[in-house]
Task: structure prediction
Amino acid sequence: MIAQFTKKLSSLLSVVNSYCQHKAIATLSVKQSVLAASILMAALVLATRYTGGLQFLELLAFDQMVRLVSNSEPDERLLVVAITEADIEKLKQWPISDQTLAQALKNLQQYKPKVIGIDLYRNIPVPPGDKTLFQELRRPNVISIYEFGGVDSEGVPSVRGVSPKQIGFNDLLLDPDGVIRRHLMYAYEGEKKYYSFSLRLSLKYLAQQNISFKRTPDGLQLGNTNFPALSTHSGGYHNLDDAGYQVLVPYRSVNVARQVTLSQVLRGEINPNLVKDKVVLIGTTAPSIKDIFFTPHNAGHSAKAITPGIFIHAQFVSQLLSTTLDRKPLIWFWSEWEEALWIFSWALIGGVLACRLRHPLFLGVVGVISWASLGGICFYIFLQGGWIPFVPASIALIHTEIIAYCYVLLRNSLHDPLTDLPNRDCFLKSLEVAIALSASRTRLIANSQLRQNMRFAVLFINLDRFKIINESLGYQVGDQLLKNTAKRLKAGVRSRGTVARVGGDEFAILLLNMSHTSEATQLADELQQQISQPFHKDGQEIFTSISIGIAFNQSELNYHPVELLRDAHIAMYRAKDLGKARHQVFATGMHTQVIKRFQLEADLRRGIDLEELYLVYQPIVSLITEKIAGFEALVRWNHPKYGFVPPLEFVSVAEETGLIIPLGKWIFQVACRQLSIWQAQFPASPPLMMSINLSGQQLTQPDLVEYVEQSLKKTGLDGRSVKLEITESVAMKDVEAAISVMLRLRSLNLRLSIDDFGTGYSSLSYLHRFPVNTLKIDRSFVSRMEDTDEDAAIVQTIVMLSHSLGMDIVAEGVETVEQKAKLQALNCEYGQGYFFSKPVDSNTATALLQSQFYTADSCLVEEQHKMPQA
Result:
């Protein structure tokens, strides 16, 4: 029995310990997981690459880089004699006769070319003139082409009787996608050697410069220039056929050589300088002959595959000559292990970025920048002659970034990214383990002293004044304050429990293995002292405090983790109500108060549905004409059981629960309907206005502008007759968002007002950016105008400021004739308060308007008995 108990207890303790150590383990696993993900993704990419799965994409990348670096200048050592469609139509035959070709060769020879290459199969005579052509083909500077079918057979044989040194095989090699990127220069079988057409032409051109040609084990050598042969895994190729000696072709451009037509040659209408000491290639460019191919310049565009074979041969010759004579680099490659290291490096970069950048937008932007940097590096190296993996590195970068980011999201589901503390879900899981452990101990241990050691407490902590600090000093300072608070809390708790961040500025502590409840209150006092010490930021001291709620477990009760955390939360709010910077232990009565508030919420929902709420209207009077210029709509609630419910009570509940959204829509609709009735009954210039309050939640309502627009259309009101009042504190919560919504509302011609201006929020720096028409001076300043010069000066300053910004002023809380006189002296446009009228129902307001409309010289309204203001 004891052994079973010990085993079970050890198991439960290990679970608790694992949750307490979860943060350190998770932090270490991030680095390990990034490395593992990078290795795994690099291995997958390399495996796919070596099986040829990425060859098509890599060749497309190669084509794109070739197009970007191609030189538009033709090679002056080359001349192409093109047999065009017009030439064939003029000669009226194809193939052209031996006599015509022989005449062209004779005409060219008189201009002394170094070498002439004929890209036409002439193994079958085309009379007349076959003997004449045979003589011309045997000239030492003429190279003919034949089709190389393999080392044992010929596809299309050469002209019989021509020296083997004057023939070369057709060296056009098609990649699997039909594009020509390679040049088969040379092949051999035993003592039998096979030279490509382009190589023969180049060797003939270089012969007078004593540049030798030889074969090496790794490639070919022209003079001092080595041409390494492509291997089966060179560059982006994989499982490449290894026939003969092949090299990649860095295409110059489509216009690799100057061009004349066969007709011009036959008529002798060419500049001799174009031929003298040049490599002259004769071939067809006529589309009907279909001797056209894909190259990197037109790869993937079947309609633009217009590169004739003669120009591809010219590309090959230009490459050989430029590399040998001009020292232009050949395309080089990394070894396989270097490419593997390169791909792994970019996979690692993707993983690191995903872990460092938590926001998906930032990660996406930086990911695109990283991918563009990768492309830039590959392109720069390509300019230097190197072809290194771009597509595999891109795949490794992007996919590792995605995998690592998904892992970060998973980890963030258990940890707070800012403070690196366990989050609410993780804390509740730890609390669940602690409750289960406590219940198990209670059942197994009868000793009362040991039972006391099973106690634990939950401390719910909220930073006092954090919202003000955050909004006044900026979010960066607020974030740093949260980080420093987390560090101090962890230092204060040490190994006695677990600290978690369970909300924006809310933390929770699970204090384990207490011998007495005083340990929790003692810890609360210690934390109060630590947090009360100033925080330093850029030489500035920031002071704050914390309100703490404490809830103890009761092993005899069947607690749920959420309930225990809720009780501590309720106690924290009680501590705030009692003055903040203190702790409060949860008592059952606190929960009763919360239940009462929940009941108020339920009644409010029902009251909105049953239309128990109604509007009253307080006149806004022009201080110039002393007539009613409009009204402010105010909501009231007549509860069927409790009677009149003060607005401060139910409006705050509506704000917290989101009921302010349907309530605000109802208020706006009813107020607009009433205004349209009054404007029809009492036409005026300018027309009567209606001020309607807009709460913080309404300001962030997605369909706010659309609903306002629909309501205006439904009631037929001009938007200039409706003024929306936004409190200064609401506008300053998120300045940029508030400005954006205000601008959209202004597009409907609505007028906007800042309510309670000057009550403590620093909006002066943003005031010129707010698209508002009116400032409302808070009643606290107006009521003290007669008592202190300071308040009078504040009112005067606000009036002058608003006028300089093109705004008008409404002064709230006007109660005496002296206050009205002072406001008139300051050129304040409008007044509102008990001096003019209390908030009244629509019938009374209509009577006030009738009195004003029909009796211009009568008083606006008689003195009314005092009652609480809205």
